[in-house]
């Protein structure tokens, strides 16, 4: 668990599935945030394990979205959708450069090649927080997502996550082959009524033990979940990002 | 007890196939021998398990499989339980050669012994599944009491599941014209054949988690459907084998 304190306080943690640790493999989640004075942008991607190399999709998508969130003055759903399609071109080049191990058993090779043709997939949550400034009387929050990664918001002690609606669906994701899958990206945006007292939390479904927890979770408790000693390690990759301002 | 534990390398699913290789499996279905239809469907199910077990470029052994072919005797085609990675390394399944009779009680009995050995070590794993494929009346003892004992065995995830695929043209009163739209056999679905009614009594209810997996694959089975498939065409036989591999995975 790591904490960064500037105008925003960010806590983040990342853990690989026990299976990946055992095999010395990289995780399939990708998480990033950047604080630029009064603006914080962030992304959390969960590579789809059943797709071909979910780590490739989550990393490529995550980097692409971070760049896009930085480059856009005004964020919008149509612009995001265009970006998600645009990213498929780069992703397809990347996918073509990957090869299936020729020494793998024939059945495995055939399945991997079939998966490669179907593309790599990732779910994502991303957004930008703009604090009030000389040019903005009120702060602004812009969020977008596809998939079942969790996104929760508190104002003071009150969780106000229902404002995002029941729009977190496992069947929705980004595909390196076809862009948004299962529907268009979901977007939530608002002016921030208060200058401070917000807590925005996001985590991949590997940390679903956090779902019932409404109170702020101490760092060491998050670490306990990451260590997952009760199950002999994490069953899935897990990433956690919390931004307070 | 809700069949939600996911098959993983640490908690693999165990599937035991019981395949009838009696002489009648030489009969034709859609211009192929029934045994060949079954072989193809089983191979496809194995491929599906490989598909659901790959992460990155690696095959993680999320499934463990035993294949028992039976006639008047039981033949352990894989020589014990094998991981899906070992089966993929072999490349293809052993041949299924039809023989004479159809003593399913012997096959269920052997499956029971396997489960008695395995279940103590499977407490964190998905509930095991026995998938029985037959095309006719059992010629040996009544298999139902053994199947019932198997269905009463359990792990914390749920009771052992028993699925039956019955290849027959005389099972349903109405033909199934669109397998993908078919709602499945429900507890009150009338069946034309006495043996089919017995197999129905030996079939578990389809767990919701399995049903969701099948819905994702565009099959419209109803809540409450039984794990019983009438093998009136190759697609239904294939759905049956796909059902056996629908253990939840991440």
Automatic annotation (TrEMBL), chain A:
The record's annotation in InterPro entries points to: PPM-type-like_dom_sf (IPR036457)
Domain of life assignment: Bacteria
Q: Name the chain's protein.
A: PPM-type phosphatase domain-containing protein
Origin organism of this chain?
A: Paenibacillus lactis
From TrEMBL, chain B:
InterPro entries reported for this sequence:
VWF_A, vWFA_dom_sf
Q: Which domain of life is it from?
A: Bacteria
Query: Domain named VWFA: which ranges?
Result: 14-236
| Protein name per the record | VWFA domain-containing protein
**What organism is this sequence from?**
Paenibacillus lactis
